[in-house]
Amino acid sequence: KLDDGSETLNVLKSDFVFVNKGGVTSTDGRVSYTPTSTKQKDQIMMDTQGLPKDIDGELVYSPIAISAVNSTKIAGKLNFRVSGVTKVMIYDGDNFQPLKAIISEDTVAVELSQNPWNKAVTIIRDDLKGATETAQLYLLGPIILLK
């Protein structure tokens, strides 16, 4: 659970891949992310399952985000093997914005070069019997693919 002082957010996560060196692929093989530099490490590519805001449209694939440990620009190539996509959007910390992408019949390619948005949150630790700690989150996305 995350508490930003105004409301409690329940964060869902499922698949994730640590970005340590070079490119990574999602566990289902449909998403790949290749950072532009080996200095782009200590990141996690994840399927967020949930969305921070309502959207207009229907999702074609799970929302994807990349987390980082600081506000350094996240740059690289994000590729999806998904069909039926007409539009790609990215959450900027406040709202979903259009994201430039090359969309073909069964693939989507995105060139990333953005700073992550960040937010200070209080984390309630289930593993420490409800103890709280403050953390700074740095996230790029979620990135969503719409019909």
Description of the structure:
This protein has no helices and 14 strands. The chain is an all-beta fold. It has one domain (13-118, 139-146). Strand 9 and strand 10 form a beta hairpin. The two termini are 31 Å apart.
Summarize this, please?
The chain has strands at residues 2-3, 8-9, 16-19, 24-25, 31-35, 43-47, 64-68, 74-80, 87-91, 96-98, 102-103, 108-114, 117-125, 131-146. The chain has 147 residues and is mainly beta.
Structural class: mainly beta
Compute the CA-based radius of gyration.
15 Å
Q: Outline the low-pLDDT stretches.
A: none
Q: Give the SSE order as H and E letters.
A: EEEEEEEEEEEEEE
User: pLDDT average, as an integer?
Assistant: 86
Percent strand equals: over 45%
Task: Count the beta strands.
Answer: 14
Q: What general outline do the C-alpha atoms trace?
A: globular
Distance between the termini: 31 Å
Number of helices, where a helix is a run of at least 4 consecutive DSSP H or I residues: 0
Give the % helix. Answer: under 10%
| Major β-sheet profile | 9 strands, antiparallel
The number of domains is 1
